[in-house]
Amino acid sequence: MSKSLSLGYTDTAFGSPATLNFVRANTNYGADFTIKELKSGETKIVNITSSNDRPETIRLAYSEVKDIYVNSGIDSAYYAPSRRGFSLVSQITEVARVTESIDGSVYDLPISAHLVIKAPNDALITAAVIETVLKRLMSSLYNDNVTTTTRLAQLMKGAVTPPEV
Description:
five-stranded antiparallel β-sheet; globular; 5 strands; alpha+beta; 2 domains
């Protein structure tokens, strides 16, 4: 018996597709981070190159999900034999510092981002499948077929509907 996986959508090709340049940060965990907190299913690490008053922290957490179908909207006729799954949280917290060049005044700006991945425990849901979904999620923050941050700027002002829709 053979199974195949389909994510259920097709992207229409652009006539002249842009070369998208979003590249993930090449974080050096071994050289730049140390464990700040360690619990069962969760760890918090801190960047040792960041200052003590403005630490960069990353939190990673994993938990088991008893019923992955809760609030999914999927008809029970299409449930997999197992309802079990997992939830993975990745969170980063940073603090940017602004220094006024004229009077030397200083203030800090906290920045935080997190994502949650929930998926079933199924052999067909591989790391490559999750990466495809993550790329699609990141694409939701950008305009169609462009390499600028214009869409992010619009989202930051509350314009949540993509102008292309």
